[in-house]
Specification:
Blueprint: H1 3-22, H2 35-62, E1 70-76, E2 81-88, H3 92-102, E3 109-116
Parallel strand pairs: 2-3
Antiparallel strand pairs: 1-2
Length: about 120
């Protein structure tokens, strides 16, 4: 994995984590969670997000049209949203990746941030 991919992966992970944390705000009729409960919930959410992203990556590996791609997958199990980021060789791979990801159980929507590889 290239440094660019790792940086992009880390940035999107932080973005998705902060969005999940913002959704856990308490209202007046629900009891506030303790720090320990919040940490446990965040850990469980992160584990579920990683598991869904792994299912999508596994589906990509089974599809031979996506073998020469560098795609990072970010998932949010609460919303069912999956974000695809990285590079593809052919424009048709963008639609193939979105179709494959959308067929994975638990995925409600797919957002593509894939870019076409430009040879130097």
């Amino acid at each position: 994995m290239t440094l660019r991919s790792k940086a992009l992966t880390a940035a999107l992970a932080v973005l998705l984590s902060s969005a999940a944390l913002a959704q856990t705000a308490t209202t007046g009729d629900t009891p506030a969670l303790t720090k320990q409960q919040m940490r446990a919930q965040m850990h469980a959410d992160r584990a579920a997000n990683h598991a869904l992203a792994k299912k999508v990556r596994d589906a990509f590996y089974k599809n031979h049209d996506l073998n020469d791609t560098d795609i990072a997958v970010f998932a949010n199990t609460r919303t069912g949203k999956v974000i695809l980021a990285g590079t593809i060789i052919d424009e048709s791979q963008d639609q193939v990746a979105q179709d494959v990801a959308s067929k994975v159980p638990g995925v409600q929507s797919v957002e593509s941030k894939l870019t076409l590889y430009a040879a130097p």
